[in-house]
Amino acid sequence: MNMSELWEDIKNAYFSYNGMGTNVFFLFVAIFYLLITNKKRQRNLLIYEIFGILFLMTPGIANGILKMSGQNTDHWMVYGILNIVAVVGVVMTDYLINIPTKKEKIIVIVIYILLLQTGMGLNYTSQHLEFITNSYKISNEVMEIAEQLEFVEKPRVLAPEQVAGELREYDTRFAVIYGEGLSFTQENLEQLQMETDSYGCNCLVINSEYDNIEFFNSIGFSKIYNTEHYEVYAK
Question: Which chain regions cross the lipid bilayer (predicted)?
Answer without folding.
Answer: 15-36, 45-66, 78-97, 106-124
